[in-house]
Amino acid sequence: MRYDAIVIGAGPGGYATAIRIAQKGKKVLVAEKDRVGGECLNYGCIPSKALIELANSIAYLRDMPGMKLDLSPDFEEWQKWKWSMVNKLTGGVETLFKAYGVELRKGSATILDRNTVRIGENELECENLVIATGSVPATIAGFGDVWYNRDILDFKKVPESLVIIGGGYIGIELGTAFSKLGSKVTVVEMMDSILPGVDRDLVSPVERKLKSLGVEVKTSARVKEVTRQGTFTVKLEDGTELNAENVLLTVGRRPNTEGFGLENLKLEMNGRFIKTDSRKATSVQGVYAVGDVSGEPMLAHKAYYDADVAADNICGEERHVEYKAMPFVIYSDPEISYTGTKGEKVSVFPVAANGRSLGMNNSVGTYRVYYDSSGYITGAGLVAPHSSEMISEVSLAVEAGLMGMDLGLTIHPHPTISEGLREAAEASYGKALHFKSGR
C-alpha cells in the first residue's frame, strides 16, 4: 500500500500532522517506537504540570494565614493517578487515529529513501514523509546516575536534598515544586542569571520567590564533577562542594536526529536541527519536518502549529509559518508568560494592586504590556498567578493589530487576575483605574 504520508513520531507534532492530513481525506500512517503522545504527554508537559499543581496546592494551603495542616502525600498513589491521567490523554489520541482512519504502527522506523520507510520487516511507500522525532535531554559525559526529567517525574519519595544543574525553565519549575514539597533545593546555573534569555524584569519576581522558599541559587557557577557514594557530591570549578540525596540535570534538549536513517536523505541541516522553509518543507522534495527536530523554540504548541502548516501544504493548500506572537510560558512561582516583541514603550500594572491575586495571598509580580508609538500592542510580559491562561489574549491582540485601548475597553470579569492585564493596557494611555503610574 502506498500512503499519502508517513509520519515518523507520534508526539504533539507527529500526531497532530497525521490527524490534520487524515481530516482532509488522505491516507496516512504514523510510526512510533515508544508511546503515543511523545515526550510531552508522557514524560514532560503534562506530568510536570500535574506535579507543579500538586506542589502549588500544598504550598497555597500551608502558607494561607489561619490554616493548620498536617499533609502526608502518598506519592506511590499519586504516581498511579498521574499515569492513569496520562493514559487517558494518550488513549484519546489513539481513539482519534481510529476515528480518522490514521494507521498506527508501533516500532522503530528506518528511512530508506524519501519514499520508503521500513518498520520491522515491512517496507512501506509514501508520497510525502514527515519527520517529527522530537528531542531528547542533553547529557554531560561523566555525570552518570543523575536524574533527568523522566526520572524525577517518576519519583516515589521526595528527596531530602536536591541539586539541580541548570537554571533554565525545567530546572526552575521542578526546583520550585520540590522545594514546596519539602526538599532542600540548590540550583546551579553557569550563566549570570537563572532563566537565561528571559527579560530580567520578568525574572526578578521569581528570584525573590525562590529566595523566600529557601531555594539556594548559584549563578556564574560551573560544575566540574559529579560523584556518588551513597549520596551525591557536586564539585564546582571554584572548589565548592554540594552534597545531596539526588541530582537533576537540566541543561537543555537536543533534536533527535539519530538512529532512524535520516542520513539516507542527505537533508540540509541547520546545526543539529533539520532545516525547513516557511512551508515546513526540507531541502528534499516531499519531505517535511515539524516540532522540536525542526528548530527553536522547542515547544509543544509550536509543534501543533507546525503540524497545521505542514499538513496543509502536503494536501495542496499553500500555507506558511509566521511566529509573530509565539507565547512562552514558564511555570515558576509566579508564572512567567510572554509573547511578541518589546516594542518602543511599556506600561506596567503591579500584581499587588489586583484584588483576585491578593485574595490568593499573592502580591508578587507585574503585568507589562509593550506597544509602539502609535499605541499598537507589540507584545507583553506577565509575571502573575496563572499568567499562562492570559497570554493568549495578548497573542491575539498582536495578530489582530489591536491597540492598548482595545484591550483596555474590553470588559473583563471581576474579580479576576486577567483584570490586571486590562489595567496594564489602560496604563498605556494613562487610564489605569487602580494604580497611578509615573507615565
What this model shows, in words?
It is a single chain. This protein has helices spanning 12-23, 38-43, 45-63, 75-100, 149-153, 169-180, 200-213, 300-314, 355-359, 391-400, 404-408, 418-427; strands at 2-8, 28-32, 103-106, 109-113, 116-119, 122-131, 135-137, 161-165, 184-188, 216-218, 223-229, 231-236, 241-244, 246-249, 253-255, 269-270, 273-274, 287-289, 328-330, 335-340, 345-350, 366-371, 377-384. The chain has 439 residues and is α/β, with parallel strands linked by helices. It has three domains: 2-136 and 254-314, 3-Layer(bba) Sandwich (FAD/NAD(P)-binding domain), CATH 3.50.50.60; 149-251, FAD/NAD(P)-binding domain (3-Layer(bba) Sandwich), CATH 3.50.50.60; 328-427, FAD/NAD-linked reductase, C-terminal dimerisation domain (Enolase-like, domain 1, 2-Layer Sandwich), CATH 3.30.390. Strands 1, 2, 3, 4, 5, 6 and 18 form a seven-stranded mixed beta sheet that branches. It has a five-stranded antiparallel beta sheet with strand order 19-20-23-22-21, with helices on both faces. A hairpin with a 5-residue loop joins strand 22 and strand 23 (377-384). Helix 1 (12-23) runs parallel beside helix 4, helix 1 (12-23) runs parallel beside helix 8 (300-314) and helix 3 (45-63) packs across helix 6. The longest helix is centred in the N-terminal third of the chain and has 26 residues, at 75-100.
